[in-house]
């Protein structure tokens, strides 16, 4: 049983126009097995929240706390956070030339577990997970994200989530730009991970479409760097019907 | 081509690949010449424009080579054993424009090897494999010395003139030598001058490997002459594992007979400033030349590799692949690859590739491939050069998967060099090299 607690989180970013506050006091609690959809318009700070939790150096945390099972996440380095059980599926995964997917996955698994996985079961696990995500086995020998299509990159992110078995996963707009088939494949992967590992999920999305495939327990509307409203799945339906306008008028 | 690239496509004239050709990757532009008065009329911008012009680097019959006179006459360079026939390099010389001349200036002096009684400037430990004759020496003019290598610059001319007895290692006709010849070359003082001329020879139908391992420190002017006999197979591995303060300029010149094969491998990890000019010359049809290079430049290090492949005979094949990693402030590398396909070299197939991986800010890699083609009757000719950068986003991505920073860099660098290292046929060198690269990474991380 894990618990991720975010309290009054403020974060800034340096822009050419000066320091800009993006997160303006975020409060959120996610427990194992729960799926929280974070929905909001573009520019509301959803991705900043994801990257701030993961520890991207671009964002400076100016106040507030993030803890995972009581441990101070903000005091940890990026890789320590991952080893503590956090996972971020990125919206724009970067290419890593010269590093094959298979080598990358094994290195990451070894780092997370603190020991190399048993070779025989590992090879089988990777193959099985790739198969489930309808990824061609040749992917294993390609360089990480190099020449991958948008859909392939997202599958590769979820592949990592399934293999690394985090206790908390943040999915940053994993659905953006996917066609229906790819969306279904990717969603099934997330649901498999939820079933098998009881992972807590922060599902960041702009659209309600993915919520047809991944059922959220809670929905948070994120506007102007804060959670503006929260509720159950019915809130998503309301957003689907009404859009974000009523939040935006109040915020600006 | 046996090497896969790390970034960008490999085809000739490819936009993406050529983008980085001749250009520099790195943070703030670092002047190639440390401080040189002669350089003042040519700023960084001027050089960049020149480099861009060169990135096409292909000269076809009837067209001047990229408007660079010096390149159009690549074959007609001065070659002489007389030191007096050469002048000191200046930054105006195309050949030397990237080189920090002030740093390397001690090697432009015509000085003897600074041996003392019982205390040589450079120590040579030679081991000869079973089936080979004992190491012997050759005086200037004593064949086969001078049949392949005729000096093309002042340093090489001095090294030749100042070496009365050149080391001669020879694989006799028909011998297949399983173990390598090994020459451990140890410099015994960073302020001490050493001159050397080494002649490596595989006689007809023989097979042999030669390993030159440079360690310690010196100001070392060196010639390595390779005579690859008809139908023979030679492998040469030159390791530059110098201490941080060594200066080294070396001319490698190989001449391949009919149906001969040479695999020439250069690995440069150490030294303050190292410049290796590796020339390969085809004299008869049916031969194959493979030139491989690996370098890792860290803080304050300058490593320059030049290759010249002279296709002067028909139906020969050459493949060149050099890869370099750079890490740390002031880490510099230069790669210049010249391939000349002469009129008589019909049926030539050639490819040259250079890849650089810039791991940190403040490092800079220059890469210039040139191809001169004097006949249309060739099998194929191509080149590619590109410089990739290991950036903060890649590092973040790997770290976000639990991989610590050092391990992340290791992963990327290992992957980058892997295929090149696999082509080194001597297992213990392969292993030592992997360890050395780890050590380089570790050191620069601290």
From TrEMBL, chain A:
Family: Belongs to the ABC transporter superfamily. Ycf16 family.
Organism: Brachybacterium halotolerans
Pfam families, alphabetized: ABC_tran (PF00005)
Domain of life (superkingdom): Bacteria
InterPro entries: AAA+_ATPase (IPR003593), ABC_transporter-like_ATP-bd (IPR003439), FeS-cluster_ATPase_SufC (IPR010230), P-loop_NTPase (IPR027417)
Keywords of this entry: ATP-binding, Nucleotide-binding
Protein name: Fe-S cluster assembly ATPase SufC
Domain ABC transporter residue range list: 4-249
PROSITE patterns, sorted: ABC_TRANSPORTER_2 (PS50893)
SMART domains, per database record: AAA (SM00382)
CDD domains: ABC_FeS_Assembly
Automatic annotation (TrEMBL), chain B:
Region (Disordered): 1-74
Compositionally biased intervals (Basic and acidic residues): 43-52
Compositionally biased spans, kind Low complexity: 20-32
Classification via InterPro entries: Fe-S_cluster_assembly_SufBD, SUF_FeS_clus_asmbl_SufBD_core, SUF_FeS_clus_asmbl_SufBD_sf, SUF_FeS_clus_asmbl_SufD
Residues covered by the SUF system FeS cluster assembly SufBD core domain: 193-416
Family affiliation: Belongs to the iron-sulfur cluster assembly SufBD family.
Name assigned to this protein: Fe-S cluster assembly protein SufD
Organism in which the protein naturally occurs: Brachybacterium halotolerans
């Amino acid at each position: 049983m894990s618990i991720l607690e975010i309290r009054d989180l403020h974060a800034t970013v340096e822009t050419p126009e000066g320091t800009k506050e993006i997160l303006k006091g975020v409060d959120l609690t996610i427990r194992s097995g729960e799926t929280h959809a974070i929905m909001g318009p573009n520019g509301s700070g959803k991705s900043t929240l994801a990257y701030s939790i993961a520890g991207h150096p671009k964002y400076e945390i100016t106040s507030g706390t993030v803890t995972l099972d009581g441990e101070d996440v903000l005091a940890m380095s990026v890789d320590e956070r991952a080893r503590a059980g956090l996972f971020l599926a990125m919206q724009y995964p970067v290419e890593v030339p010269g590093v094959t997917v298979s080598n990358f996955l094994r290195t990451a698994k070894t780092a997370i577990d603190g020991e190399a996985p048993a070779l025989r079961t590992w090879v089988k696990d990777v193959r099985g997970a790739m198969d489930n995500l309808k990824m061609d086995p040749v992917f294993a020998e390609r360089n990480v994200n190099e020449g991958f299509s948008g859909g392939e990159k997202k599958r590769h992110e979820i592949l990592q989530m399934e293999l690394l078995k985090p206790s908390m996963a943040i999915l940053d707009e994993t659905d953006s730009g996917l066609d229906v088939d790819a969306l279904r494949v990717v969603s099934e992967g997330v649901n498999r991970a939820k079933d098998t590992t009881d992972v807590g999920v922060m599902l960041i999305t702009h659209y309600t479409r993915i919520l047809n495939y991944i059922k959220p327990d809670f929905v948070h509307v994120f506007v102007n760097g804060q959670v503006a409203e929260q509720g159950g799945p019915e809130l998503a339906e309301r957003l689907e019907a009404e859009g974000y306008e009523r939040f935006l008028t109040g915020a600006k | 081509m046996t090497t896969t690239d790390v970034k960008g496509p490999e085809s000739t004239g490819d936009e993406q690949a050529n983008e980085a050709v001749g250009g520099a990757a790195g943070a703030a532009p670092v002047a190639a010449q440390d401080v040189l008065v002669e350089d003042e009329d040519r700023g960084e911008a001027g050089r960049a424009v020149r480099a861009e012009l060169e990135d096409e680097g292909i000269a076809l019959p009837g067209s001047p080579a990229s408007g660079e006179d010096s390149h159009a006459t690549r074959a007609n360079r001065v070659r002489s054993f007389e030191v007096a026939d050469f002048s000191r390099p200046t930054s105006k010389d195309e050949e030397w424009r990237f080189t920090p001349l002030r740093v390397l200036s001690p090697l432009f002096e015509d000085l003897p090897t600074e041996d003392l009684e019982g205390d040589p400037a450079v120590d040579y430990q030679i081991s000869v494999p079973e089936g080979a004759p004992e190491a012997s020496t050759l005086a200037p003019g004593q064949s086969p010395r001078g049949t392949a290598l005729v000096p093309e610059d002042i340093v090489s001319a001095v090294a030749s003139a100042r070496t009365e007895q050149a080391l001669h290692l020879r694989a006799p006709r028909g011998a297949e030598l399983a173990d390598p010849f090994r020459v451990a070359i140890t410099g015994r003082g960073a302020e001490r001058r050493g001159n050397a001329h080494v002649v490596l020879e595989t006689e007809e139908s023989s097979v042999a490997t030669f390993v030159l391992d440079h360690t310690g420190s010196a100001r070392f002017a060196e010639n390595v002459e390779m005579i690859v006999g008809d139908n023979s197979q030679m492998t040469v591995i030159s390791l530059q594992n110098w201490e941080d303060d060594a200066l080294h300029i070396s001319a490698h010149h190989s001449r391949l007979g009919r149906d001969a094969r040479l695999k020439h491998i250069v690995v440069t990890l150490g030294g303050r400033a190292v410049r290796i000019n590796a020339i390969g010359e085809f004299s008869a049809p049916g031969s194959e030349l493979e030139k491989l290079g690996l370098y890792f430049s860290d803080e304050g290090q300058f490593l320059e590799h030049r290759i010249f492949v002279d296709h002067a005979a028909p139906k020969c094949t050459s493949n060149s692949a050099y890869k370099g990693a750079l890490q740390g402030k002031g880490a510099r590398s230069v790669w210049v690859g010249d391939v000349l396909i002469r009129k008589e070299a019909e049926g030539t197939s050639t490819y040259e590739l250079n890849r650089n991986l810039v791991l940190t800010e403040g490092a800079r890699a220059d890469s210039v491939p040139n191809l001169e083609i004097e006949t249309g009757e060739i099998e194929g000719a191509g080149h590619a050069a590109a410089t990739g950068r290991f950036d903060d986003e890649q590092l973040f991505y790997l770290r976000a998967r639990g991989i610590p920073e050092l391990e992340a860099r290791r992963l990327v660098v290992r992957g980058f060099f892997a295929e090149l290292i696999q082509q080194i046929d001597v297992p213990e060198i392969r292993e030592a090299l992997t360890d050395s690269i780890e050590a380089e990474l570790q050191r620069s991380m601290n």
